[in-house]
Amino acid sequence: MTNALGGTHRLGDREVPRLGFGAMQLAGKGVFGPPKDRDEALAVLRTAVELGVRHIDTADFYGPHVVNELIREALSPYPDDLVVVTKVGNVRDEKGAWVPADAPEQLVEQVHDNLRRLGVESLDVVNLRNRSRADGFTPRPGSIAERFEALAELREQGLIRHLGVSTVDAQQIAEARTIAQVVCVQNFYNVANRKDEDLLAQLADDEIAYVPYFPLGGFSPLQSDALQSVADRLGASTAAVAAAWLLQHAPNVLLIPGTSSVAHLRENAAAADLHLDADAVRELDAIAG
Hints:
Blueprint: E1 8-11, E2 14-17, E3 21-22, H1 38-51, E4 55-57, H2 66-75, E5 83-88, E6 90-92, E7 98-100, H3 104-118, E8 123-129, H4 145-156, E9 160-166, H5 170-177, E10 182-186, H6 197-205, E11 209-210, H7 221-234, H8 238-249, H9 262-271, H10 278-285
Parallel strand pairs: 3-4, 4-5, 5-8, 8-9, 9-10, 10-11
Antiparallel strand pairs: 1-2, 6-7
Helix pairs in contact: 1-2, 1-9, 3-4, 7-8, 8-9
């Protein structure tokens, strides 16, 4: 089943299938509150593992708390080869707004919240989220040293196994790597939005996993038309084509498409077997904005 999910890449000290699962959509509307169908949400998680997924992305501010509690109910005790990746740097207010919370003491508190709700003694991977206050896809400028050092200290204490960073630029990654090993980078990237192209290549050289968020969306109408044209010719969905392009584009890309539907989850898993021919790749390469 591993080969059926896009091959593998190292994530920390484990080799995982390159097609994982992003758990954000398991919460309610706006990633806030309980799921519309709790039984279906639990079934999605269990089916993902049955299909061979071994990389699940989450955060305690999804819900908040809801998604981590679902993961624990559905999957604990966790398979030995399952990597659950969480992130810290935000909380939610009573109306569901995303509130920055990335002072060192806040990050420490959030790590403990993740530990408690996932029901583990050590978190597999924790990403430091560095999103701009104004734009969720733009790195917050400046040094991340103080915040990353707080997480590195928890790693030394054994509460975290591996560290990653999210919404960062090349300089911030380099800074983090002087403090502790960085096993993954989670940034905004897809077939139409490739500002990270040089960074992606450098991380591939360094065998650091790159986890694109918003990998299947955010396209302009013209870009969507081009994507649809390729999908129609191949008899596939646009989501499958966008995912296949990412998997073929760089060997260190790990995908975490999310869904709250078992049927859609199975479609995503099947998409990992889609091969894009040279003509399709050229057409898709041409749509970058």
